[in-house]
Amino acid sequence: MPIYKKGQKEDPGNCRPVSLTLVPGKVMEQIILSANTRHVQDNHVIRPSQHGFMKGRSYLTNLISFYDKMTCLVDEGKAVDVVYLDISKAFDTISHSILLKKLAAHGLDGHALHWVKNWLDGQAQRVVANGVQSS
């Protein structure tokens, strides 16, 4: 059942799907999540710098870690540049293939390009022609 989030109510992209899950399904999800989490932690699959979707970590622990690293670099007399990006809607109206070609031309390595391509594949692609936007 779609639940309205924000924006125009007529746009399906402004709704999020919600489904009622049976209790046995929820229990199974927790068992699988627990096993996967244990495997990831025991085998050091995720770097210590990962904060999103990690138990006991959040944007706040990420910010504290970042601030600590930056202040250490400044204390050592090293130059520090920081760029903040909000990419939540940045790719809605541009051609993904053109963006990937330009990133490759600017020297983005294969792994990073692959990550960007996978991320873009999950984004809504809208085409703007003559000032009219369509999905």
UniProtKB/TrEMBL annotation:
<dbReference type="InterPro" id="IPR043502">
    <property type="entry name" value="DNA/RNA_pol_sf"/>
</dbReference>
<dbReference type="Pfam" id="PF00078">
    <property type="entry name" value="RVT_1"/>
</dbReference>
<dbReference type="InterPro" id="IPR000477">
    <property type="entry name" value="RT_dom"/>
</dbReference>
<protein>
    <submittedName>
        <fullName>Mitochondrial enolase superfamily member 1</fullName>
    </submittedName>
</protein>
<feature type="domain" description="Reverse transcriptase">
    <location>
        <begin position="8"/>
        <end position="126"/>
    </location>
</feature>
